[in-house]
Amino acid sequence: MTPTYYLLLSALLFSIGAVGVLVRRNAIVVFMCVELMLNAVNLSLVTFARINGSLNGQVMAFFVMVVAAAEVVVGLAIIMSIFRTRRSASVDDSNLLKY
Amino acid sequence: MTSFLAQVDKITPPEIAYAAVAPILIVLGAACVSVLLEAFLPKHQRWTAQLLLSLITIVGAGGSLIYVAVGEVVPPQGQVTLSGTVAVDKPAVFLWATLLVLSFGAILLIADRSVEPGGSFVAQAAIRPGTVQDRAQAAKTGMQTEVFPLTLFALGGMMVFVAANDLLTMFIALEVLSLPLYLMCGLARRRRLLSQEAAVKYFLLGAFASAFFLYGLALLYGYAGSVKLTDIANATGGTNRSDTLLFAGFGLLVVGLLFKASVGPFHAWTPDVYQGAPTPVTAFMAACTKVAAFGGILRVLTIAFQHTQWEWRGVLWGVAIVSMVIGAVLGLTQTDVKRMIAYSSVAHAGFLLIGSIALSPSGLSGTMFYLLAYGFTTIAAFGVVSLVRNSDGEATHLSQWAGLAKRSPVVAGVFTFLLLALAGIPLTSGFIGKFVVFTAAIDAGMTPLVVIALVASAVAAFFYLRVIVLMYFSEPAADGPTVSVPGAFTTIAITLGAAVTLVLGLWPTFVLDWAGAGAFIF
After folding, report:
1. Which residues touch B117 (CB under 8 Å, ≥6 apart)?
2. Of A5, B82, B271, B354, which shows the fewest CB atoms inside 10 Å?
3. Considering only CB atoms, which chain B residues are within 8 Å of A64?
């Protein structure tokens, strides 16, 4: 099994995540799609570490996980606060700011 | 166990030039202390303590920065430290100084409690907008003082971002500066629903953009086998590595950076967030984030992608044109003053991008001068916006600004001067900034781009002048807004911004010399 397949899988996961961010309505699901993109990056980092024969890529994957965790804390707090006001997490309802 | 440990090499910790990175350490250390103050001080003492700590931090970091800048502890051309991840060179020192001075002004605006009784920030962010408790807290004078540690963390992230010499450090710094900003956007005392909506939009789009940045990082790691900017530059110098990885990685990385700088087609969040966020936070974001983002863009393009510039330059030409056109044309249609300044910042981002892609010493110094000048003008402009109020908070709709000069000639006069600076009229710093950037661009062979930029400036000047005409030559509405008399903090911030705008317009030489004192080291 060549490492290239993992890169293709990672690109696929990243694209699924990106499309998900663009088409899904629920803020939580949009946020999950962002997390999917970050994890797709982790997969390619680890694969490149294998291809390059160095451990740096694997260490970077840990950094990405920590950042993703911090982002979850901030993101869920923000989404929660707007959900409590509107009783909905749909990004289409957030339409006061426009033009 | 011992036999296993005997087999592995000892990891030697990297050398740290503490004196060189002292300004960052002071800011981030003070941010941690600030969190502790928040936890242990009683509520009524927090505002004073936090404000003092923040201002002392900025002054202290500035002091240690002067120590770095005079070259006593750091070699004159700069020093790379922390095993090559942070470069403290002349441009980094200039940008640090810019960030510190601008955030000093922004912190004064954030701390102000005289314009809006109790400050522009909500007393308890957890209370649901529109409820009985919310109306009660709107009448109280307390504010959520967590905004001070958040500001310091964001400032620390920005300072690391402009000095980061590898992409991973840059990514961490990007998140350290963004995450506090997402939260600060949602903390407005008035119009809380708009504020929360701005926070959600900024957060979702910002996280989306950082994912792009990160995938670009991964692809460049695959291309060069390292994320250090120098290693990427070496790898681009004629090898048989995959160009697909290089250019896909470059594209994704640059999208992430341009998003933060609110350039061109990646600006969608800018108007909404500028309008919804509390005005002092908008001032901080508009001035400091722009400095940080363009500092990062300059360093990445100059160090890592200098050799491949003929491949990507055309694309960034297009991006700069789109940014200027969007900013200038959509700015014409705006009816809200904060949104109008947001579109003006998109247009300015286009001008700054022109300077960044010149990749010459004059392009570097011109862009950095422009950032400094633009930052001060913007902070003062948002300071003035926060003064014009009616019974439900700031009166940001342009129709409410009609005839403002008859009510308050001073405020209208200062705002006129700042708008002229944004438009780039001579005798203001805006003119000098545009002049040095466009000169550098012509020297780098980008004359067509400069012509388009001049046309865009002319179009943009129209919407600034429209506000001036509105303020001076319209009859004030009967139920128009009042102009609050600012307290000391807001007065200092506005005076500082307007004074620097004027001084840099008249005697720009010393700052230009300082901006052009040295190049990036790596």
Report:
1. B141
2. A5
3. 214
Instruction: Check CB contact of A89 with chain B, cutoff 8 Å.
Output: no
By the 8 A CB rule, do B409 and B136 touch? Answer: no
Q: Which domain holds residue A46?
A: 4-86
> CATH number of the domain that A8 lies in?
1.10.287.3510
Residue-averaged pLDDT of chain A:
91
What 8-state DSSP symbol labels residue B471? H
DSSP count for chain B of H helices, then E strands: 22, 5
A37 inside 8 A of chain B by CB: yes
The structure tokens 């807001």 sit at B490
Query: Which residues lie closer than 8 Å to B486 by C-beta, 6 or more apart?
Result: B112, B114, B115, B383, B387, B494
Distance CA B371, CA B190 (A): 31
A93 is a domain residue: no
CA closest to B218 among chain A residues: A45
Report, in this order, helix, strand and coil percent for chain B, each rounded to 5: 70, 5, 25
Number of Cβ within 10 Å of residue B38's Cβ equals 17
Minimal C-alpha gap between B379 and chain A (Å): 22
A25 domain residue, yes or no: yes
**Residue labelled with tokens 């840099």:** B504
Overall pTM surpassing 0.90 (yes/no)? yes
**Which is it for the CA torsion B469, B473, B477, B480, positive or negative?**
positive
For chain A, what is the domain count? 1
Angle between helices B488-506 and B361-385 (to 10 degrees): 150
User: Is A97 domain-assigned?
Assistant: no
Question: What gap in Å lies between CA A21 and CA A37, rounded to an integer?
Answer: 10
Mind telling me how many Å the CA of A1 is from chain B's nearest CA? 18
pLDDT at B140: 72
How does DSSP assign B1-47, residue by residue? -HHHHHHSPPPPPPP--HHHHHHHHHHHHHHHHHHHHHHHS-HHHHH
Residue A78 CA to residue A34 CA, distance in Å, equals: 15
Contact A94/B207, CB-based, under 8 Å?
A: no
- Which secondary structure element, helix H or strand E, spans residue B88, and what is its range? strand B86-89
CB contact, 8 Å: B205 with chain A?
no
* CA-wise closest residue to B24 among B292, B304, B280: B292
Residues on chain B touching A23 (C-beta within 8 angstroms): none
Is A98 domain-assigned? no
Contact A34 B175 (CB under 8 A): no
Q: What is the pLDDT of residue B5?
A: 61
pLDDT over 60 (residue A70): yes
